[in-house]
């Protein structure tokens, strides 16, 4: 069976690539070995948050030219990175989520531990704060939990916030909404995860005509007249941003929804919006299967075989490898070497095992292993024993040469490299067919 | 003793992705979800069997947790085996009746008109509801007066005349309830110059037996089927099944759940669409005329699990003039025998609501799905008729 493009990996990079191929009218299949890291993600997109010296980045696109050679962004250039993110926001909007940003500038998003992380795009419910003055205009912040939610600790958030000098003059209050005041009837509310609370609320509260006002008055009671009310993201799986908006209208308060421990509802929302968009464009999604081998002929990948259908190879003109890093099992390591698990492509690595990481896990300095990953040329084609594979592109965390955590760049790299892979693929179709299939 | 226990569930990272995708956990808060029921609970149960949780009975074995798991844990299988090990299955007359599909079929089929008329009657349904706990709101599957096997026997001569031969595992539903799909398969394969032969004997693949805790019976069936396959594969290319759950069980569940070794024949067991799609790719394409219909495709849980959706889509897309809209990949909620049980009716209907709403909102001529159980559920809950992909393919034959 033959496809124009086969995308391997169902995370942010794979979905972006797949959506762009499908939108251009290519017969596209996406293979995903289980759900992606999006299920655990904050639901915001960072492009570039920190410089090499750990200083905050104000304008991420401007800072790209100062990155070291070999960084994926340097191969793309700032213009293409910006275009790819515009493409992404457009797709998210079409799937019903309007991502917000502060022009070309980064903003701060609050985390459940009270840390500030720089990001460029956030879902509206996340209430982005100013990067330079996150506490501007805030005199009182109320942190409200749904009693029983074990994924959110208001005291930890408050303690984390107090560490920021900006928040020194801000009064922090902590409040609870009891399960019975919002009609939650669970066997044991103290067992509940964020996802379970959202499902119970949908069934027990929002199914009633007065559900929304009941929750709104509970929030009002717990929060008083705070300038900002912080809630764990437990209210709704789908349409969470719309719900926050409605609650703001009812309460007259500014509500900030924080991603909790996994699963993260804002992350799940983003993943399902992207999958829905891909499906609407006619893309084929194959979940729960994984690629076990590739059939290469010199500089080309001809076909792949999967675990569930080993005797029937899937053929395509172009492939995108977006299998993620160690956590997503795209990369694998053993005591002496590092490998790409799917095709055994050449990887960027450095010296002996003892030099892969620092002695202390969290001492503030960067770990070399974070930069490890597949080595590519300027078109993001990988090498296999030194030979470039021309119809295979790599995208996202499986790439080497960048540090997604220390730089706060995971989202932007995933989107831009996935986008570029698809751009190069679709461009070749306009060549072959003599008509232009590109839409962006 | 501990080292003899399969601890592959320890690959679980506690990420909870499985629970986000579990249709039962979404519909029924009494079910703690696959993570807690599967890998988390397994640790406790190894320590002390008393820690077995009755809530495991809510699992429908749809396997969506396994499809979603990024760490390759066989969550659904862990749950099924735990239920078997700790007496978590209720095995009353209702469970016996619902799961012994081949026995019930061979008893009911000869009296099909009477049985069909009876199971439509309200008082009968009420009686079954009260005495057995089979929900009276369900529509029961009809039985056929002429089984697929007896239809097939009349033309086994024609089939033998083809040079290429495959073995067809027809399954209980095609044989006793509705032989349409079997007949369509024969028509399609014949148009591709391939003859069909049946196994000398075939028993239920075991899906409903596993789901109701009759593991010993399922294992006996599996052993019989495997010996039949071995025999039949000396004369035919492969064994194919049109029912996704049958295909998945024969190929994947025999070794994983029933510990019946099928390694000698495993690579020659195919889901029908996979076999046909491979033939198409090799150029063995029958002449097809346009079928100008707009259809919505619903992907069955066990087909997703077995990796077969790609082949069905390939077949549907190869039919000229057919417009195919893929529905969200959600569970229909019936899950074979699960939704027939009175205590599961609400959960079952609530799981399927998303699919029913989506179908009603679309302006389509038919719904298409590979699974007979999904077909029952969709037809009971929407205005649409549900067709098997092979039926559309057979219609397109010139």
Automatic annotation (TrEMBL), chain A:
Enzyme kind, highest EC tier: oxidoreductase
Keywords for the protein's UniProt record, in alphabetical order: Flavoprotein, FMN, Oxidoreductase
GO molecular function terms listed in the Swiss-Prot or TrEMBL record: glycerol-3-phosphate dehydrogenase (quinone) activity
EC number: 1.1.5.3
SUPFAM superfamilies cross-referenced by the UniProt entry: FAD/NAD(P)-binding domain (SSF51905)
Residue intervals of the FAD-dependent oxidoreductase 2 FAD-binding domain: 5-412
One Pfam family from the record: FAD_binding_2
NCBIfam families, per the entry: glycerol3P_GlpB, PRK05329.1-3
Protein's name according to its UniProt entry: Glycerol-3-phosphate dehydrogenase subunit GlpB
Organism of derivation: Endozoicomonas euniceicola
Taxonomic lineage from the root: Bacteria, Pseudomonadati, Pseudomonadota, Gammaproteobacteria, Oceanospirillales
Gene field: glpB
From TrEMBL, chain B:
Alphabetic keyword roster: 4Fe-4S, Iron, Iron-sulfur, Metal-binding, Oxidoreductase, Repeat
Top EC class, one word: oxidoreductase
Magnesium among keywords: no
Keyword Acetylation belongs to the record: no
Residue span, 4Fe-4S ferredoxin-type domain: 1-32, 47-73
GO molecular function per UniProt: glycerol-3-phosphate dehydrogenase (quinone) activity
Record-listed E.C. numbers: 1.1.5.3
Name of this protein: Anaerobic glycerol-3-phosphate dehydrogenase subunit GlpC
Organism of this sequence: Endozoicomonas euniceicola
């Amino acid at each position: 069976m033959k496809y124009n493009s086969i995308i391997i990996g169902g995370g942010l990079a794979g979905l972006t690539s797949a959506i762009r191929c499908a939108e251009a009218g290519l017969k596209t299949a996406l293979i995903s070995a289980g759900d992606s890291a999006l299920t655990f993600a904050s639901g915001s997109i960072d492009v570039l948050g920190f410089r090499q010296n750990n200083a905050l980045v104000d304008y991420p696109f401007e800072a790209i030219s100062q990155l070291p050679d070999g960084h994926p962004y340097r191969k793309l250039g700032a213009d293409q990175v910006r275009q790819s993110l515009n493409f992404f926001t457009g797709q998210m909007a079409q799937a019903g989520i309007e991502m917000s940003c502060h022009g070309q500038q980064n903003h701060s998003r609050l985390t459940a531990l009270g840390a500030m992380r720089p990001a460029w795009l956030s879902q509206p419910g996340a209430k982005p704060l100013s990067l330079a003055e996150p506490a501007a205009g805030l005199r009182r912040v109320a942190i409200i939990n749904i009693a029983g939610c074990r994924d959110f600790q208001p005291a930890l958030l408050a303690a984390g916030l107090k560490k920021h000098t900006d928040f020194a003059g801000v009064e922090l209050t902590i409040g609870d909404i009891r399960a019975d005041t919002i009609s939650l009837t669970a066997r044991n509310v103290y067992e509940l995860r964020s996802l379970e609370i959202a499902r119970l609320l949908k069934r027990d509260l929002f199914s009633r005509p007065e559900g929304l006002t009941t929750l709104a008055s509970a929030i009002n009671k717990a929060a008083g007249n705070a300038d900002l009310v912080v809630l764990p993201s437990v209210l709704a799986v789908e349409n969470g941003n719309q719900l926050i908006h409605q609650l703001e209208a009812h309460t007259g308060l500014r509500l900030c929804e924080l991603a909790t421990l996994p699963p993260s509802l804002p992350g799940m929302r983003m993943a399902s919006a992207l999958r829905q968009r891909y499906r609407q464009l006619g893309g084929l999604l194959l979940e729960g299967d994984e690629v076990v081998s590739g059939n290469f002929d010199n500089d080309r990948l001809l076909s792949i075989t999967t675990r569930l259908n080993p005797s029937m190879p899937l053929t395509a003109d172009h492939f995108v490898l977006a299998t993620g890093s160690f956590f997503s099992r795209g990369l694998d390591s053993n005591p002496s070497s590092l490998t790409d698990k799917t095709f055994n492509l050449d990887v960027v690595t450095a010296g002996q095992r003892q030099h892969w990481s620092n002695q202390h896990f969290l001492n503030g300095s960067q770990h070399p292993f974070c930069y490890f990953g597949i080595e590519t040329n300027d078109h993001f084609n990988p090498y296999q024993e030194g030979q470039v594979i021309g119809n295979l592109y790599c995208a996202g965390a499986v790439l080497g040469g960048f540090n997604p955590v220390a730089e706060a760049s995971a989202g932007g790299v995933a989107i831009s490299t996935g986008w570029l892979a698809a751009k190069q693929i679709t461009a070749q179709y306009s060549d072959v067919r003599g008509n232009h299939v590109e839409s962006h | 003793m501990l080292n003899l226990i399969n601890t592959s569930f320890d690959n679980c990272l506690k990420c909870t992705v499985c629970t986000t995708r579990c249709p039962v956990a979404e519909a029924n808060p009494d079910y703690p979800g696959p993570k807690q029921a599967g890998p988390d609970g397994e640790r406790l149960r190894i320590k002390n069997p008393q820690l077995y949780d009755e809530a495991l009975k809510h699992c429908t074995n749809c396997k969506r947790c396994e499809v979603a798991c990024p760490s390759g844990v066989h969550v659904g299988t862990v749950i099924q085996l735990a239920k078997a090990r700790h007496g978590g299955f209720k095995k009353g007359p209702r469970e016996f009746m619902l799961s012994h599909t081949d026995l019930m079929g061979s008893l009911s089929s000869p009296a099909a008109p009477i049985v069909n008329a009876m199971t439509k009657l309200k008082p009968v349904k009420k009686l079954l509801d009260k005495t057995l706990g089979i929900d009276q709101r369900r529509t029961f599957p009809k039985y056929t007066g002429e089984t697929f096997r007896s239809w097939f026997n009349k033309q086994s001569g024609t089939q033998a005349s083809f040079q290429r031969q495959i073995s067809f595992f027809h399954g209980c539903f095609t044989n006793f309830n509705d032989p349409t799909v079997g007949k369509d398969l024969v028509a399609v394969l014949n148009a591709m110059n391939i003859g069909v032969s049946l196994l000398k004997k075939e028993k239920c693949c075991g899906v409903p037996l596993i789901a109701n805790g009759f593991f010993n019976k399922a294992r006996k069936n599996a052993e019989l089927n495997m010996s039949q396959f071995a025999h039949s594969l000396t004369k035919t290319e492969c064994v194919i099944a049109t029912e996704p759950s049958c295909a998945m069980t024969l190929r994947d569940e025999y070794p994983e759940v029933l510990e019946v070794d099928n390694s000698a024949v495993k690579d020659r067991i195919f889901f029908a669409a996979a076999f046909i799609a491979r033939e198409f790719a090799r150029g063995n394409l029958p002449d097809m005329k346009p079928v100008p219909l707009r259809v919505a495709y619903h992907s069955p849980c066990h087909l997703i699990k077995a990796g077969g959706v790609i082949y069905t889509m390939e077949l549907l897309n190869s039919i000229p003039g057919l417009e195919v809209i893929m529905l969200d990949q959600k569970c229909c909620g019936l899950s074979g025998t699960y939704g027939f049980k009175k205590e599961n009716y609400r959960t079952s209907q609530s799981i399927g609501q998303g699919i029913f709403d989506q179908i009603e909102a679309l302006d389509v001529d038919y719904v298409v799905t590979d699974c007979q159980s999904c077909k029952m559920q969709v037809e009971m809950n929407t205005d649409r008729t549900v067709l098997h992909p092979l039926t559309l393919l057979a219609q397109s034959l010139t």
